[in-house]
Design brief:
The protein is α/β, with parallel strands linked by helices. It is built from 13 helices and 16 strands. Helix 2 packs antiparallel against helix 10, helix 11 runs parallel beside helix 13 and helix 12 crosses helix 13. About 45% of the residues are buried. The structure holds pyridoxal-5'-phosphate.
């Protein structure tokens, strides 16, 4: 009926009954994954959005090597180390002004879990026990029980529904309907004691690369502030230049109460995450009473080697023209997307910074439709790593990608629309 896997490894987001794991990668370099047969695959989605500058940036690789000579994990309660201290200071320097403390963990999901716990702890300790969280339709915040609860519900979390907690959801602000989203949020704040709005700034990634203007985020922040509701921005995907600025919130001119960052924090080299928060949130936990401490820890909190990689990443942002690079990449996408805007085979052609997306116009859209896997195979046959979300094709390359490499990706998208789009329609 279907092939049974040869390997005991259970891969993420993989239906082993359908998709054989056939590609073994032996090396990475720049914008490429190199497989055992010597094929170079253009990593046009930055290996699930983690690789920013390019695979194996020499400065990050070297920092890891140097750190590994003198460190492995060290306990992070009672003890600290230089890389963690330097990284925290560095993060606060590049983050929106007003954030004051840095809590380390090891994945995007965990950074969001930490944010939710910080928010509830804040209200609990302030004697104003609020626990409701507002999220946006089509959001994704991770795959743990807590972050699934805050994310879009669907077949991908249906088996676990019984364990997910209840949240309030506002509609995604489709063009022209932004005011409805703002009004809905304001109504929720007025009617319920909302602890926090948890939101992906500017781009909703896994929900389909849905984009909304910075102005909306500014206005959501104003409403939240008015009702003493905390704003948690999940910059796990949008951080480190993806949207054209280091953090997406910069474009809205806001400082959230809590900011989650992971993926690009080490340039994609090692797992690492940080949850940044305001002084007020830290101080709500600050006491001589031990029961008010922040009860959270990951075993690998502030791993010294990962911290060293993240410090090296910060230095790259300081010493290399990363901002110019991402501006240029944004320009290259804009030029290449232009012809697709008038192309009847596509709808919703859009871009925020270095992220470009367009929807293949097929009747059977949706994650379960065949179009996603068919497109994926089509691109893979051309040595391109592009993983559409259903009929949503997007590019989110490392910043070292060249104009010619982008041309290759766009030419394949153009061709795929004829081959796959027509076959499915
Ligand atoms: C990827 C992602 C997460 C989860 O990060 P993991 O490291 O996979 O746990 C959370 N939020 C957003 C916006 C993401 O894109």
């Amino acid at each position: 009926m279907h092939s049974y896997p040869q390997s005991p490894v259970w891969h993420p987001f993989t239906q082993h009954g359908l998709d054989a794991i056939t590609t073994r990668i032996v090396r990475t370099q720049g914008a490429y994954l190199i497989d055992e047969h010597g094929h170079s695959v253009l990593d046009a989605i930055s290996s699930w959005w983690v690789i920013t500058h390019g695979h194996r940036h020499p400065a990050i690789a070297e920092a890891i090597q140097v750190a590994a000579e003198i460190f492995d994990q060290i306990i992070f309660a009672e003890y600290t180390h230089e890389a963690a201290e330097e990284l925290a200071k560095g993060l606060l320097q590049v983050a929106p002004p007003g954030l004051a403390h840095v809590f380390y963990s090891d994945s995007g999901s965990t950074s969001v879990e930490v944010a939710l716990k910080m928010a509830l702890g804040f209200f609990h300790h302030a004697g104003d026990p609020r626990s409701r969280i507002v999220v946006m339709e089509h959001s994704y915040h991770g795959d743990t029980i807590g972050t699934m609860s805050a994310g879009e519900r669907g077949f991908f979390n249906a088996p676990y529904g019984a364990l997910l907690f209840d949240v309030d959801t506002v509609r995604f602000p489709e063009k022209g309907q932004e005011q409805d989203t703002l009004d809905a949020f304001e109504r929720l704040c007025r009617e319920r004691r909302i602890a926090a709005l948890l939101i992906e700034p500017l781009v909703l990634g896994a929900g389909g690369m849905k984009m909304y203007p910075a102005r909306l985020l500014t206005e959501l922040k104003q409403i939240a502030e008015h009702f003493h509701t905390l704003l948690i921005v999940d910059e796990v995907m949008t951080g480190w230049g993806r949207t054209g600025t280091l953090f997406a919130c910069e474009q809205a001119g806001i400082t959230p109460d809590i900011l989650c960052t992971s993926k690009g924090i080490t340039g994609g080299a090692l797992p690492m995450a940080a949850t940044l928060c305001s002084r007020e949130i830290f101080e709500a936990h600050l006491s001589v009473d031990r029961s008010r401490m922040f009860f959270h820890s990951s075993s690998y909190t502030a791993n010294p080697i990962a911290c060293a990689a993240a410090v090296a990443n910060l230095k790259i942002w300081q010493t290399e023209p990363v901002t110019q690079r991402i501006e240029k990449l944004g320009r290259l996408h804009r030029e290449r997307l232009e012809p697709f805007r008038l192309d009847p085979r596509f709808t919703n052609v859009r871009q925020t910074g270095t992220i470009a997306a367009l929807d293949l116009d097929v009747s059977t859209a949706g994650y379960f439709s065949d179009v996603g896997p068919k497109l994926r195979r089509f691109f893979k046959d051309r040595d391109l790593l592009i993983r559409p979300l259903g009929n949503v094709i997007y590019l989110m390359t490392p910043y070292c990608v060249t104009p010619n490499e982008l041309d290759r990706a766009y030419a394949a998208i153009d061709e795929a629309a004829d081959v796959i789009g027509k076959a499915i329609k």
